[in-house]
Design a protein that fits this description.
CATH topology: Growth Hormone, Chain: A
Number of strands: 0
CATH class: Mainly Alpha
Order of helices and strands: HHHHHHHHHHHH
CATH superfamily: MFS general substrate transporter like domains
Largest sheet: none
């Protein structure tokens, strides 16, 4: 289900680059971003009005339930407290992993079209790389999410990072448009699959007691990486006149995430984890 919901992100990546390209070519970038901002505001606010917290709000029952479960919002959930979780090495290891993912993924999203135009391809064809990336990210979110339900979140996440790293290595040698399109397809699949497992991995490790806050903090790590990566890549390009070194750094950063991922210690139940980590654990 997380994969299906997350597919909306990929859909936006297909539509918005094409729309933005048309707007910029027709008007200018300031007008284009204003229009995109208004569209985003209206769509998000309107669709947020139809969201419901649970089936009971619509007079429905979750699958398998024969009677209403009143007071669902107050059901006790197992897991470690927020305070205890952020004092564990496991949490910060997961934080660093997603920092690495954000560093690599958002650097590509910010610079791949510029890289393609620098190789001599027209913008209208270069932007198709992003559209392909968005399309395959939808497939990746659904397939990887479904695979995780079958074989587990940790091994599926490792597979996703391996695919991501393979795409970044392929990028080092991609000088033709068709090669960049293949890169976009493989990268998009791995991007969607990697990020869709963020919440499930956190739940596996620490339970649901403070899940929202923990996912938010891990998302901050992803965002910090997504801020640092594009800036560094742009600086390297300004200094060297090439993305080659920058793309190599992205591959190395993703490799760090791949090395750390197998070290994550998953548990069969949040309750066991809660019992196994004392209050003063570091």
């Amino acid at each position: 289900m997380t994969g299906i919901v997350g597919a909306g992100n990929g859909s936006g990546t297909i539509v918005l680059p094409i729309l933005a390209g048309w707007l910029i070519s027709t008007y200018d970038w300031r007008t284009s971003f204003t229009v995109l901002g208004i569209i985003s505001l209206v769509v998000i606010v309107l669709f947020a009005q139809v969201l419901r917290r649970d089936p009971e709000k619509m007079g429905l029952l979750p699958d398998g339930d024969a009677s209403p479960q009143y007071g669902n919002a107050n059901i006790e959930v197992s897991g470690i407290s927020f305070r205890d979780t952020i004092r564990t090495r496991q949490f910060w290891m997961l934080w660093v992993i997603f920092f690495c993912m954000g560093f690599s993924i958002f650097s590509i999203m910010a610079h791949i079209v510029i890289h393609a135009t620098g190789l001599g391809f027209v913008t209208t064809k270069a932007v198709n790389i992003l559209a392909i990336t968005g399309g395959t990210s939808i497939v990746g979110r659904i397939i990887i999410g479904s695979t995780a339900d079958r074989i587990g979140n940790k091994p599926t996440f490792i597979i996703s990072v391996i695919i991501l790293l393979a795409a970044l290595v392929w990028l080092q040698f991609s000088t033709e448009l068709w090669m960049l399109y293949i890169f976009g397809a493989v990268f998009g699949f791995a991007w969607g699959g990697t990020l869709v497992l963020q919440s499930p991995l956190c739940a596996d490790l620490f339970g649901l007691n403070s899940h929202g806050a923990l996912v938010g903090l891990i998302q901050a790590g992803l965002s910090f990486g997504g801020t640092a990566g594009p800036v560094l890549l742009g600086y390297i390009f300004d200094v060297t006149g090439s993305y080659q070194l920058g793309f190599s750094i992205l591959a190395m950063v993703s490799l760090i995430g791949l090395i750390l991922a197998p070290l994550l210690k998953l548990i069969s139940s949040a309750g066991r984890r809660n019992d196994s980590i004392p209050k003063d654990s570091a």
